[in-house]
């Protein structure tokens, strides 16, 4: 078991799917976790449930990751209140499919603002807090779609390709401060975000996946927990595929 006792973590988009599984994984390992979501009531309920499950220090807070000032304020507040900030997981993101000829302006704006700008704001806020203590681990959520592309997901693929390069670029900047930045690139994971995929698409993805199954949110959460831990102390600037071999 990875031990994160004494560590303080922030997970954005932590009310469902991979985000919630990550909160559970970090809390199980002993970390104090602040999870965020757009809906304050939902964030606090999710936090209370995880706290009760693991008898852990888990709190929920509202956050819109596209608001840079709000992100900076929340992260700075956590670091000040807790006296440190060890782990930040930039998980909040959106997915909306559209063929290239049908991509609306608002879809492009929403996808790039949330997935790209929101990740940059989160990493930026985390870096500012962690630079003072000269340590920390940041994990961002990329996607295999950002690496191999996907028909009908041009805007999403572009946004997630950017996220992977956010990890690589900031890892080069922040290593001198003892801060590691990595990403995970999930394959097809059974979450609310992928529930809209039709059976034909799912079947095709399964045929292309050597392990022959869909991923679970917990599969990704465990990879994030590893990258956030001291067991990954010499790993930075990597985007780890958690995809059952789909990109091979």
Give a structural overview.
With 248 residues, the protein is of the alpha/beta class. It has one domain (8-187, 220-241): NAD(P)-binding Rossmann-like Domain (Rossmann fold, 3-Layer(aba) Sandwich). The chain contains 8 helices and 7 strands, in the order βαβαβαβαβααβααβ. It has a 7-stranded parallel beta sheet with strand order 3-2-1-4-5-6-7, sandwiched between helices. β2 (32-37), α2 (40-54) and β3 (58-62) form a beta-alpha-beta unit. α1 packs across α8 (217-228) and α4 packs parallel to α6 (154-174). The chain is globular, with a radius of gyration of 17 Å. The two termini are 29 Å apart. Belongs to the short-chain dehydrogenases/reductases (SDR) family. Residues 7-187 form the Ketoreductase domain. InterPro entries: KR_dom, NAD(P)-bd_dom_sf, Sc_DH/Rdtase_CS, SDR_fam.
